[in-house]
Amino acid sequence: MIMMIKDFISSDIPVLDKNDSLMEFVRHLEKTGLDKALVTGYMPDGRKRVCGVVTSRDVLVKIVSERLRRSSLGRLRISGFMTENPYKASLNTDLVSLVKTMSSRGYGIIPVEDEALHGAIIRKSLLRLLFNDSTHVKNIVDNHPLKARASDSLLDVRQKILGTDKSFVIVVNESGEPVGYLTVKEVAYAFATFIKNVPEKFRKERISQLIARDYMTKINLEIKVSSSIGEAAKSIYESDTKGAVVVGEKGFEGVVTDSELINYLAISLLSGRQIG
C-alpha cells in the first residue's frame, strides 16, 4: 500500500494569527491538550499563509526572562515566540523524506500547505506506521533519561530540558524511584499560568516556589522491556502521551518517547524496510 502524506495529516492543530496574544495559545492548550500551533500572517501578495509554528518548547525558552515576567499573557504576541519560516510539506511531499527531515532536525510539527493549508504532521500521527513492528523495544530505550527530584524547582527542570533536545523528564523520590514525569508541555504551561495568575510584584519571589511534584503526571503507562516497538508505539499513541517508562525484571530500565520512535522509523524507512 502506498503511504501518502494526506493519510497522516492532523487537521485539528490550532491555527493562530501571529498578532494573537500568547493567551490564545494557552487557551488552546487548555482546551485541546495540543501544545503546538500553526501561525499565519499576510504575505506581500496579500495572501494569508503559514509564517511560523509555535510549540511549548518555544514558550519555555523565553517565558521566564526578566522582561517577560513583567508582562502579561494578553500583551505578549505569538510573533515573539514562534519559529519563523518553518519547513513545510505539501500533499506531494514524499513521506520518507518528511520522516527523515522530522527526525534529523528534531521537528515536532510540520505544516502541510500548498495552495491551501491542509493541517500539519505531528509525531503522534506517524506512530501508526509502527504498530506492526515486532522489533524489541529494548533496542531504542533511552537508558539515560533526564531526571529530576520531586523537590526540584521548575526553574531547575527548565534548565535540564533546555540543555538537551529531550522533552521528557522522569521525576524521582528521595530514594531515586520514579514517581512521575514532566514534559515540556507541563513545564511551559506551569510558567504561563504563573504569569497569568500571579501579580507582577510577587513573581520574582514566588517563581522559585514552583516545584516538580506539584506539576508532574503520575506514571500511568509502563512498557515491559520484552515488548515490541509496535506495542510501545500503540500504547503511547492510545494513551495520548509523549512517552512511557520501560521496566524489566529489576525495575526501571529507561524511557521510550515519540522522539525515539520517530528516529527509529526514519532509519527503518531509509533502509528500505516495509513499514505499516
Could you please describe the fold and organization of this structure?
- This protein is of the alpha/beta class and 276 residues long.
- The chain has two domains: 5-122, CBS-domain, CATH 3.10.580; 137-270, CBS-domain, CATH 3.10.580.10.
- 34% of the residues lie in helices and 23% in strands.
- It contains eleven helices and 13 strands.
- A four-stranded mixed sheet has the order 1-2-3-4. The protein has a four-stranded mixed sheet with strand order 7-8-9-10. It has a three-stranded mixed sheet with strand order 11-12-13.
- The longest helix has 14 residues, at 184-197.
- It is flat, with a radius of gyration of 19 Å.
Throw out a few tags for this protein:
about 280 residues; alpha/beta; CBS-domain; four-stranded mixed beta sheet; 11 helices
